[in-house]
Amino acid sequence: MAEKQKVNYLKTVLIGCGFLGSMTAWSIYDPYVSKLLNEKLADSAFVMDLGFRLAQKYPFLLDFMQAQGENIETAAGGFTLVPLFVGIVMTFDNIFGVIFQPLFGKLSDRTRSRFGKRRPYVFIFAPLSALMFILIPRMATIPALMACIIAFVFFMSLWRSPVMALMPDLTPPHLRSEANSVISVTGGFGAFIGIIAGSALAFIFGYDTHLNQERKAVFVLGALMMIFGTLVLAFFVKEEDSRRLTTAADKAKSAKSEKLNSGERKSLVLMMAALFFLFIGTNSITTFFALFAYEILGKTTAQATLMMTVFLAFGLIGAFPAGLLGKKYGRKPMIVSGLIVFILMFAAFTATKQLWLIWPALALGGASSMFINVNTLPLVWSIGGLDKVGTFTGYYYTATFAGQVAAPILYGIVRVLTGTYMSLFGFCAAVFVISLLFVTGVRHGEAVPEDEAKLLAG
Question: Which fold has domain 8-241?
Fold first, then answer.
C-alpha cells in the first residue's frame, strides 16, 4: 500500500516567504504612504485650490468624505478634498491588480525557463518593487512621489499571481487547502511584521518613525523583507525546468484544463461573483472599523487597532483547522459554514445593538474569514485544472481586488444615507448573504481524491 501523502510544512513555509515579503510591504505601504501623500498634497497650492473648486461645484463630495471619517477642514477654517485625492491614489494598487494580475498569471503559465514558470517573475519584479519602495519616502516633489508610487504598485502587481501560483504547482491538488492554510499564516506573519515595523524600529533605535527623515527606515525594512523572500525562493525552492518539451502523458493529464465545460464556466463565474461581494464585506470591516469603534464604542484609534488584532489573531488560529477540514469535508462546505457564521454574528449585533456582542463577532468573524479564504483559492485552482494555475490565480485576484475597490465607495454611500457607522455590520451581513447565494450555485472545484491525485502525479 502506497504511503499516504502529507503536506511538507517546511517546504510550504519556504514557498510562502515570497508572499510574506509582499504582505510586509503592503502593511507598511497603506498607513505610511497615505500620510506622505496627505502631507505633500496639503502643501500644494494647486491641489488645495482644485479641491476648493470641486467642493464648491459638487458639495456632496464633502458629505461623502466626512462619511469616510476624513477631516475636511483646514487650519485656516476652510475645507479641503485632499483626503479624497489621497483615497484615489491609494486605490491604484487594487486597480493595477485587477488589470495586470490575470495577465501575468496567464503569462506565467506559458513561461519556459530554466528557473521554472513562476520564479522568474519574482526574481525580476520583486527587487524592482523593493527599489521603488525605498525611494518612495525620499521623493521631494509630488510628481516624483507619484512616479515611485505608480512604479511600485505596477511592479507588485506583476509578481503576485506567479508567486501565489508556486504553491499549487508544487503541491498535489488534494493537499492544497491544507497547504494554503500554511501560506495564509506565513503571509499573516508578514503583515504583523509590517504593522509593528514602526514601533519596533522606534524602540530599537529610539526615534519617531513618523517623522519624515527617520521613517525612511520603515520602507527599507519592507524592501529587505521582499529581498529576503526572493532569496529564499532562489536558494531553497526549486521549480522544474519548464523549457522541457511537454510529453504526451503530460498533455493527457492536463487535457481537462485546456477548455472549461459549461458547468465549470458557470461555477467559475459564480465563484468570482461570490468573491467580489465577500471582499466588499471584509474590506469594509478593515477600512471602517476604527471609525465605527470611535463613534459607536467610544474607543481611540489605538484601542480600535487592538480590537482588530482579535479578528486577525482568531483568523490565524482558524487557518490550520480550516485547511484540514476543507481537505476532509470539502472546500465548499467550509466556505458556506464561514459565511453563515459571519452572517449570524453580524446580523445579531446589528439587530440587538448589544455592544458586548462585538467581541464574539470579531473572534468568530476572524476564524470564519480564514475558513473562507483558505478554501476559496484552492477551489478556483481546481476549476481551472493543473496547467492553468497562474491564469486562475489571476482570476481570483481580479474578483477580490475589484471588491476592495468597490467597498469604500459602496459603504461610503450607505454611511451617508444612514448617518451612522452602526450600519457597518448590517451592510457587511447583507453583502455576505449575496456572496452565500452565489456560492451555493458552485458545483465544481472540490479537492481531487487522494488516489486520483497520486495517479495524476505519477
Answer: Growth Hormone; Chain: A; (1.20.1250)
